[in-house]
Amino acid sequence: MLFLRSPYIGNRLRSLSLCLMLAFSLGFLSGQLWPSVTAAGCRLEDLTQDPDTHFAGAEPARQAAATTGADSTHASQKLVCLTFDDGPSKNTPAVLEVLERYGVPATFFVIATGYNDEYLPLVRQAREAGHQIALHSASHDYSAIYSSPAAYWEDIDLLRERLSPYVDPDGLTYLRFPGGSTNTVSRKYGGAGIMKELKAQAEEKGYQWVDWNVCGEDAAGEKLSPGEIFKNVVKSTNGQSVCVVLLHDSATTSTTPEALPDIIGWYKEQGYEFCTVEQLYEK
Ligand SMILES: [Zn+2]
């Protein structure tokens, strides 16, 4: 497991303060409401306004440069990781099609709520196409997963189990906390220290957890147009040389694949290279 050798295991990708909406609603994920779909997301007050750490972009960039055989003079290489949360879903085929068309890899932080059972085989297709599959949550139910550290890890174990028919669970070593690592919604259920505790435990268990530093805000309650998502990405990129872009692959984010050609084209024009999150951390 490459990341275990990484000196950057403790690095955190910071949450972007402008990112208001992250995830799907508890209603969507509730067995009672299933299969009805209600789009919502984290509220502004759920997120930490000032990230508690800095995004260690320069270090992963150098790591990635090393993997491509570049020497240290390429340390300033511009890199972008497109990441998709909350899939697989009915929109995943459209996302995969665009990624294939433009020949860029991406990372999918997936869920397995029951609602998306029928789409789970798509993670195999994504993996076989060269994308990274990473862990997000089985239930994505904040009140359950953040009720205690034990509940959180039970949910992760369940997710691994549900994914195991489609991808090698040994390769699932990266995770993204629902709401991000600096979310405050978890305090309601598990107390003020729960994220700190979970981050420490993730590292002890050999997981690399990853936030984002660019946000498309595509999971906002109101569906955004492809142009609005594109503008959000451009605006929050804000000159950063290493970008981890938060996008969504959920049942309601159908405009995200439509925004992808412009997003990919723009990053290419700006001289960015695309890689998976895992490649960002590889030696
Ligand atoms: Zn999510």
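^ zinc ion complex. The pocket of zinc ion is lined by residues 22-23, 85-86, 136, 140, 178 (CB under 6 Å). The domain at 2-281 is CATH 3.20.20.370 (TIM Barrel).
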